[in-house]
Amino acid sequence: MTDFRQLPDLALRTLGGGVVWANDEAFAARENLITPGPAAYEPATFGPKGQVYDGWETRRRREPGHDEAIVRLGAPGIVRGVVVDTAWFTGNYPPEVAVDGLAAAGHPSVADLLADPGWEPLLPRSAVKGDTENVFAVTSERRVTHVRLRIFPDGGVARLRVHGEALPDPRLLDALGTVDLAAIENGGRVVGCSNLFYSSPNNLLVPGPPRSMGEGWETARRRDDGNDWVEVSLAGESVIAVAEIDTSYFLHNAPGWATLRGRRGDGEWFDLVPRTALQPDTRHRFALGPPPEQSGEARPVTHVRLDIFPDGGAARLRMHGRLTTSGREALDHRWQAATPRA
């Protein structure tokens, strides 16, 4: 993908992210930074602290210094870009911002995070505009678990988006055994999609069950003879035991049929689930195994492609299985390279 904003937002609350600390939130709460969706605004809506903003806003600073907030990523990984969105902040946005990253082990306290000397810059101090999605590419190859947003000297930010590639600790996947290898938190990611009209295909790979149709992937209505599809790169080379195509909450716009195919590297696609009728508002589960003429395990895959016919929406795509030996070694190599302190 050429636009890093098509990568998942690793800080998103629905992925497990959290704003664990801010030095000031006098006007608006820090937690708003990672709320899904764009910031909302209703003019002349005043509360006890002034105009209500859907963002994080600090008091007017009367002394030297700056304000900052620390975000725990829902899925630790390599950051490819950040978006500092100052939507609706026009006379009270910070003129400059910076973003730092930290790879912390375990579950550190706020005191541990503040004292940790391992913070490294992801975005150097940079100018931003008000009421704007300020977009910045990041070149670091380090895996991070937390990011720190610094604003100079004070003001308001509506959203902080931290787009990147999740990189899990391989030891956790070992301990868990059979896992969802398409999940963002386990290193899965969308690498291609035919249509993003209504919502992002990244929604297919987030944790937990959907709570509404808006938390899935939905395409525009097709008026031709084609079909829509999404391609996912798994956490590593894997053998998949169970696939799940979930159409929960899609009642009158679920696909009529679907196929699920896999491939290894740049090899040829082959069927995991042949063309099958889908039901609305249903979790479809498929036990996968070797073709009838073969014995042993199913064929290993690195990528899967879901084709839906002709269009519609799905809530989740799960690929439960285990990494192969070579897949585990490749993941370990990536993790070690991106986590020097490991």
TrEMBL record:
<comment type="similarity">
    <text>Belongs to the allantoicase family.</text>
</comment>
<dbReference type="InterPro" id="IPR005164">
    <property type="entry name" value="Allantoicase"/>
</dbReference>
<keyword id="KW-0659">Purine metabolism</keyword>
<keyword id="KW-0378">Hydrolase</keyword>
<protein>
    <recommendedName>
        <fullName>Probable allantoicase</fullName>
        <ecNumber>3.5.3.4</ecNumber>
    </recommendedName>
</protein>
<feature type="domain" description="Allantoicase">
    <location>
        <begin position="187"/>
        <end position="323"/>
    </location>
</feature>
<dbReference type="GO" id="GO:0004037">
    <property type="term" value="F:allantoicase activity"/>
</dbReference>
<feature type="domain" description="Allantoicase">
    <location>
        <begin position="16"/>
        <end position="166"/>
    </location>
</feature>
<dbReference type="Pfam" id="PF03561">
    <property type="entry name" value="Allantoicase"/>
</dbReference>
<comment type="pathway">
    <text>Nitrogen metabolism; (S)-allantoin degradation; (S)-ureidoglycolate from allantoate (aminidohydrolase route): step 1/1.</text>
</comment>
<dbReference type="InterPro" id="IPR015908">
    <property type="entry name" value="Allantoicase_dom"/>
</dbReference>
<dbReference type="InterPro" id="IPR008979">
    <property type="entry name" value="Galactose-bd-like_sf"/>
</dbReference>
